[in-house]
Amino acid sequence: MASAHGIECSLREDVLGSGVPGLAFPNQALFHPRRYLATLVSRLEGNGSYVFEQTDAHEISQDPVGVRVGKHVVSCRDIIVATHTPITGLASTWGAALFQTKLSLYTSYALSARIPAGLIVGGLYWDTGDPYSYLRVERKNGYDLAVFGGKDHKTGQADERDSLNRLCAEFSDWIPKARIEYCWSGQVVETSDGLPYLGAVDDHQFIATGFAGNGMTFGTLGGMMAAEWVAGIKSPWVDAFSPARKIHRGGTWDYLKENKDYPFLLVKDWLMRGRGETLEDLHPGQGRVISYRGKKVAAYRQPSGDVLPCSAVCTHLKCTVKWNDLERTWDCPCHGSRFRPSGEVLTGPAEEPLPSVRPVEEGP
Ligand code: FES
After folding, report:
1. Domains detected in the chain
2. DSSP secondary structure letters along 37-57
3. Best mutation site among 311, 337, 338, 351 for ligand 1, i.e. most ligand atoms within 8 A of its Cβ?
């Protein structure tokens, strides 16, 4: 298939000594994402072009078109929403909720490690498993740097610490001389048919999301398409990536599969609402959902020992959040929203914080 489309590739009988065959794609470009971004920013032309870092966009308004940032509004003619999970923007709440069902948020894990120089030929390796694993190896001064990742799961639906531990253990078993230096997790947005959504959703609004871990490629493509859209040029890719497209071949089953969680988790929450744990043994830095006076409360014990309570009901579509002990966040298993221990939104689709509730009385 790849050769039929003019993409050079060849069959390897045994990839990385695994005994499993694979395809090799030679002459791939390799670039540094942060240097790439820094160069793009340095080439902004001025004349009213600005980059504001550490600045949350809270709301998109329609009349006049603008973006609210705290107490300020940045007015503009067109808006490009490239916020990972799109904020509701100019679409109706129902339209936004429906669009959200086409996106699935997964938590993914990665580690970086020093490995003996020359042990593995430099390059990027990935498998087609589910969840899949990938490995990137790069030559440094006197050693090789490996980045190994995978163990993806839908946000809020697995034990995060266990997932990361399994990733590290798998890598250490495979390369006993590896020295793991860093590990982390992040979220990826998947779509039902594997292609991102890049295109206009309103006269003045363009969205770019669903890169599924291929952000350097699709982010660049999305940037090119957005620039053409602003300039009134029709991109040849409009239909393939349209946010309004029918799901491409084979994606319908995935769409149904990804969305079966929501009603199931909502009913489960409702059935479990009478049961709850207590604050007993809740140590500083930990969180737990408890049932308190008939309500589900997300209780976080601060380092000072005081409990910070907020509602455990996700402000997106009312599922119950779950404590992520690895990263100290409240994660929603339904559509992947994440909140800080104090309830502020960390990532959407939820756009409102978990409301704080009256202090919980401890003890008998
Ligand atoms: S109910 Fe949708 S993210 Fe929580």
Report:
1. 34-102+193-241 (3.50.50.60), 103-191 (3.30.70), 269-347 (2.102.10.10)
2. HHHHHHT---SS----SS---
3. 337
